[in-house]
Input
Amino acid sequence: MPLGYAATTPGACRDCHHLRVIARLAPGATVARAQEEVTTLHRRLKAEFPRLIHATSMPVAPLHDYVVRDVRSVMLAVMGAVVFVLLIACVNVTNLLLAQGAQRRAEFAVRTALGAGRGRLLRQLLAESLCWPWPAARRASPWRGSACRHCCRSVRPGCP
Output
């Protein structure tokens, strides 16, 4: 939607340079082609208003790159730390399940002696190990979105 900008608007002037333009590329269009068109438009404006246009160029960049340019490396480092913590948590849960399995060795021997097959024991272990993550995931889900927003805002205010 184009911005209605009249000369009668308070603070309106041709040489203020206080506006940024955000546009969506047409399907199939490239950033390079958009840059060519903006460069052509810039040359025409500079020829028409030489004392008002001081910029040497009008750069075109994807909005994502503009928004995250300052925080990209920080966010990648935070994401790496989160992945590392999750890896440690997974290893700890695996260790707990293995320790629990070793303690239940006698129980499995009794169940096998009573006629339980390997498939039945495997189904029981699978069902028990799948019961662990569901309560934690249900408790963590409401916090996930707000934690991501808080992390992003704390790194750079105004970040979406």
